[in-house]
Write a structure and sequence with these properties.
It is a single chain. This protein is mostly helical and 81 residues long. The protein has one domain. 52% of the residues lie in helices and 0% in strands. The chain is built from three helices and no strands. It is globular, with a radius of gyration of 12 Å.
């Protein structure tokens, strides 16, 4: 089954916003990763790349607003800084 990518990205933004009004990129990446199909037959590197690309799409949505520059706050692996 192929996921509806636009729906996945939008649902991840909604979920991150439901948990915290202000969320980090890594919070959003965690929501994207949680929606990764478990039956995907790909290696971990591919999944990581997919999560990062979809997180980029989520950050670019008009429903998300950047409050601080990318380098502000804690640095996490999922932040790709």
């Amino acid at each position: 089954m192929v996921p509806d990518v636009d729906r996945l990205v939008f649902d991840a933004v909604l979920a991150a916003g439901a948990r915290r009004t202000v969320f980090t990129r890594s919070d959003l990446a965690a929501e994207v990763a949680a929606r990764t199909p478990a039956e995907a037959k790909v290696d971990a590197g591919t999944v990581l790349d997919w999560v990062q690309r979809l997180t980029d799409r989520a950050v670019a949505l008009e429903q998300t607003v950047t409050l601080l520059p990318d380098h502000d706050g804690p640095v996490r692996v999922a932040d790709a800084r």
